[in-house]
Design goal:
The structure is a single chain. By secondary structure, the chain is an alpha+beta fold. Helix content is 43%, strand content 18%. The longest helix has 36 residues, at 12-47.
Length: 987
């Protein structure tokens, strides 16, 4: 027998060094962790959401403790019992001699090893469990849906709230038993209770009892798992084209799962009986029976039924279950009440009835006059060039669309706030003092009507009806300072003692670059850091000594952080998913960020799972918007409208969907956090929009689930798809974004603010449907789908864009615009329903110079209806090219249309059909001399403009545009109604 191997030991100095390092690591880790938690608490305390902080923290700690103690404690107990009942005497064998050195190494440290195993496993289990805090809270506070699932007759809440928790507990149960079994087997083997290579008895009595109990518990948990698997069939993906229990699941798997419950229970009893019987033959036979049963009746039989019974006539066999899936999916994605309209059914091919279309256009007082020519996704640089004022300010990469009622007229506007842009600070502005205590906020709200441009020498610019510094315009802004915004990633230290000189840059004085007006923040936002302890806390948190050394930090100071509205709402309500596109609105004279928040679940029965981030992405995701997380969902509701005050950072969460059981559940878990809908200001209600990310998810569902007949659904004969963005040149074919428009929907009397999208036929570019979701307060959330005839080749967005690019008039200009000194930029391709006969496409075309500070300017407007294309400087001219002279002017002038819509026989005068003076003798009327001259001037200016465009002479183009504008004003002076406004609607 070999002598035992000595265990190496450490010197006293080595032990002291290692101990000191360990203590320092623990100390620094503890200080960092406690500082982070304390800073988080201060933020929640400042915003008034301490209920969220404490509830989440307590729930995480509870789950951490329970899972950690249960896992670490029970596994350690199993290992201890295996060691405690180890055999006193072990047979002399080569196997035991080889294990002796391990026993000698472990014996002196058995307590430390056992404690270490328990602590490590407990920490892993605790960290894993605490991440499921929402699962526990929803189980604890679950609210009934009021609807039963069709298979088991249980309320939907069982599947959404209870079932995930039971699965979580079962998973931890399996993990604990498996770890305990592994630990026990290893311990018995090392200390002689399990002898694999020694002749004679392989197990001691104690080892047999312990392993039998653990195996029995494991198989008993398997019986519970089989029972839960029955309910899990509502999430089955066995059906080829739908989610949920299929024919095979219900008729060939549900009963076998029940049988397996009893087989597993009997197998567990056989293992428990082995404590007395002392023979592994019986439990081994039971285990074999369980395995064979699971393979035969749980796998083979369902596979045979699926292959030989279902597949030959799947469309008929699966029909009842497809109906379940369609109904549940539509309900889960809030699409049960979609209004389907058979649209343009009288049109044949690309034939257009000119009289009908012209009549529709003349009667249209809502859609065409509000056609949006300003693309918020293109004009950020234009806003920056015209409204930046100072380099410290900036605008987001993507602007926003909202609507305002000014002088009784509702109009959509491109809106933005002039934010502090830390990335634009110059070198001398980037010191800690300047970056965090001087340049602390933005200033101003900017708005431009979305259907108006001002013609200039180089092209059309937005008509900024609200802007400049201080902010002035037709939208009243009383508090224009912006301390919370999308561009603000840094923290700011604000505030000063009473009487101290202001140090925060506020706005330039009189436009001078040398002089400026400062102010001191007096809002409610921010965490007070007047005490030394608070200053030390934030010095540690930000690793910045200036919190302790700088004179800018004083007894009246506050620190502002988490300033991005989206991040602010996500932090205040971690149980919600927040839409990736916040937008600013003026509410009560103050600028507020409005955000949409969703409740989601991945456990709604029979509903199709989809990846949220992928479904909600499009060509603009990540370009001024934030992508949603890549997580699976099969239920979503826009349950909360959130606001963040741009001045003081106040976060308010308003209950929006009052019927959502998931939101009600969270309202029970976090009482007082959600403000009742009744307390939502009416002015705020007027500015809510239907959320983009939800709409993108819903339109993806509608591409398949608009089909009600289960056989047609199975055959996928009428499937749609979202069109690829036709304005993007990359090869990724990302989805076309939905667009906000102010338009009149078929069947409505007035225009409404809505979110829209075109849908193509599957794997074709022909248009199949047009989807819109209303944002109007009285019809909010109503989704309308205009279904186009399946045999009519209506052009889809990509086909229209291709027609534009290949047009004989457009192609030469694109060559001209895409030169060394400029580039063409296509704006959003809008789809507008006109009357009941067709869809009008409108697309602005911008030109951008190649200089560093260049910005896009509107140059042209493209229009498509059926197979006709219009291409001109203004929308009215482009409409004239498509529908005939005079139509465009009437269609784009809402006031004129309102006066003449009842009399189609009296079109408004145009240069091609001039106004006349009646002769005294009652003879034939003749044009007045002044009018004839005005028409001649217009024609001359148009000819000059065409010649300048052909030659690429931008200066001549500008002069021609000025001449055209003057001639048009002279012409309209002669007509009733007087001269036009300074800013011409729709270009």
């Amino acid at each position: 027998m070999r002598p035992p191997v000595s265990v190496p030991t450490l010197s006293r100095r080595a032990k002291l060094v290692i101990g000191a390092i360990a203590v320092l690591l623990v100390l620094f880790t503890a200080i960092g962790t406690l500082t982070n938690v304390y800073v988080d608490y201060l933020w929640f305390d400042e915003t008034g959401f301490t209920e969220v902080f404490w509830t989440e923290l307590q729930t995480r700690l509870l789950l951490f403790a329970v899972a950690g103690v249960a896992t670490g404690g029970l596994v350690a107990l199993a290992v201890y019992l295996a060691y405690r009942f180890r055999p006193t005497f072990r047979p002399m064998s080569l196997e035991q001699q080889n294990l002796e050195r391990y026993r000698q190494s472990l014996e002196p440290r058995r307590g430390l090893v056992l404690t270490g195993v328990g602590v490590v496993l407990g920490l892993f289990a605790g960290f894993t469990a605490q991440g499921s805090w929402e699962t526990w809270l929803t189980y604890r506070n679950g609210t009934d849906f009021g609807r039963d699932d069709p298979q088991f007759g249980l309320d939907i809440s069982f599947f959404v709230f209870d079932y995930p928790f039971y699965r979580l507990v079962l998973g931890f149960g399996f993990a604990i038993v498996l770890l305990a079994l592994i630990g026990s087997v290893l311990t018995h083997y090392v200390f002689g209770g399990l002898r694999l290579q020694t002749p004679g008895q392989k197990l001691t009595a104690a080892a047999r009892v312990q392993l039998s109990v653990l195996l029995g518990v494991f198989v008993a948990l398997k019986a519970v798992a089989y029972w839960l698997d029955r309910y899990g069939l509502v999430y089955s993906d066995r059906g080829d084209v739908f989610t949920g229990a299929s024919y095979t699941d219900v008729n060939a798997l549900l009963v076998p799962k029940t049988i397996l419950v009893f087989v597993a229970a009997a197998c567990a009893l056989a293992f428990f009986a082995n404590i007395v019987v002392r023979n592994f033959v019986l439990p081994a036979m039971a285990l074999v029976l369980l395995l064979v049963s699971s393979l035969v009746i749980g796998v083979a039989y369902p596979a045979i039924v699926q292959q030989f019974v279902v597949r030959p006539s799947a469309d008929q066999r699966e029909a009842p279950y497809i109906e379940r899936a369609i109904g549940s999916t539509l309900d889960a994605y809030n699409l049960s009440d979609v209004d389907y309209i058979q649209y343009a059914q009288s049109s044949e091919g690309s034939e257009v009835d000119p009289e009908v279309v012209v009549a529709d256009l003349r009667n249209d007082t809502e859609t065409i006059p509000n056609a949006r020519l300003l693309d918020p996704n293109v004009l950020s640089d234009t806003f920056t060039a015209r409204q930046q004022i100072r380099n410290v300010y900036g605008f987001p990469e993507k602007l926003d669309i909202d609507r305002y009622t000014v002088d009784g007229q509702t109009q959509d506007y491109v809106v933005a706030v002039r934010e502090l842009d830390s990335a634009s600070l110059s070198d001398n502005q980037s010191s800690w003092i300047n970056r965090h205590t001087v340049f602390t906020h933005g200033n101003g709200f900017v708005a431009a009507p979305a259907n108006e441009v001002i013609a200039g020498q180089e092209g059309g610019e937005p008509n900024f009806t609200t802007g400049d510094l201080p902010t002035t315009g037709n939208i009243d802004v009383e508090q224009a300072r912006i301390y919370y915004g999308e561009l603000m990633e840094d923290y700011s230290v604000v505030g000063a003692p009473e009487g101290a000189e202001p140090r925060e840059f506020d706005l330039p004085e009189g436009g001078s670059d040398e002089r400026q007006i400062n102010n001191t923040y007096d809002g409610e936002g921010g965490v007070e850091i007047g005490s030394f302890f608070r200053q030390l806390t934030y010095a540690i948190y930000y690793r910045e000594r200036n919190f302790l050394l700088s004179g800018a930090v004083n007894e009246a100071s506050k620190v502002l952080y988490v300033r991005d509205p989206l991040a602010r709402v996500e932090k205040a309500a971690p149980f919600l998913q927040v839409d990736g596109d916040p937008y600013p609105a003026v509410i009560g004279g103050r600028v507020s960020w409005i955000l949409d928040a969703y409740t989601t679940s991945d456990a709604y029965p029979y509903s199709e799972l989809m990846e949220l981030g992928e479904a909600a992405s499009d060509a603009l995701t990540g370009t001024g918007t934030t992508a949603l997380p890549d997580e699976l969902i099969n239920y979503i509701r826009n349950s909360v409208k959130a606001t963040v005050d741009a001045y003081d950072g106040t976060v308010t969460l308003y209950e929006w969907d009052q019927q959502d059981p998931v939101l009600k559940t969270f309202m029970k878990a976090f009482p007082g956090v959600i403000t009742p809908r009744e307390e939502m200001p009416e002015e705020l209600v007027d500015h809510v929009r239907y959320p983009e990310d939800l709409f993108k998810v819903q339109r993806e569902i509608l591409t398949r689930y608009h089909v009600e007949d289960p056989v047609d659904f199975y055959n996928q004969s009428d499937r749609w798809q979202v069109s690829a963005d036709p304005t993007q040149s990359n090869a990724t074919e990302q989805d076309q974004p939905p667009y906000y428009i102010l338009a009149q929907r078929p069947g409505d009397e007035r225009a409404s603010f809505q979110l829209t999208s075109a849908l193509n036929a599957f794997r074709r570019d022909n248009l199949s449907a047009f989807v819109s979701a209303s944002s109007a307060p009285d019809t909010y959330g109503e989704i309308q789908v205009l279904e186009l005839p399946g045999n009519t080749p209506f052009r889809g967005p990509r086909q229209v864009q291709n027609a534009f690019l290949t047009n004989n008039q457009v192609r030469p200009d694109l060559t001209l615009f895409n030169s060394e000194n400029s580039s063409a930029v296509f704006g959003n391709l809008l789809t507008l329903p006109i009357g009941g006969d067709g869809l009008l496409y409108v697309e602005p075309l911008y030109v951008r110079g190649s200089g560093e500070n260049s910005f896009p300017l509107l140059q042209k407007v493209l229009v498509n209806f059926a197979d006709r294309i219009g291409y001109a400087d203004t929308l009215s001219e482009a409409l004239d090219q498509v529908f005939g002279a005079g139509v465009g002017e009437q269609a784009t002038d809402a006031d004129n249309v309102a006066d003449t819509a009842t009399d189609d026989a009296q079109p408004s005068p145009t240069p091609d059909a001039p106004a006349t003076e009646a002769p005294a003798d009652g003879g034939e009327a003749a044009p007045s001399p002044d009018l004839a001259q005005a028409i001649a001037d217009i024609n001359a200016a148009l000819a000059a403009l065409e010649e300048a465009q052909r030659n690429g002479d931008f200066a001549a183009q500008g002069q021609a545009l000025e001449d055209l504008q003057a001639a048009t004003e002279a012409y309209q002076q002669i007509q009733p109604g007087g001269p036009p406004a300074a800013a011409s609607p729709t270009g």
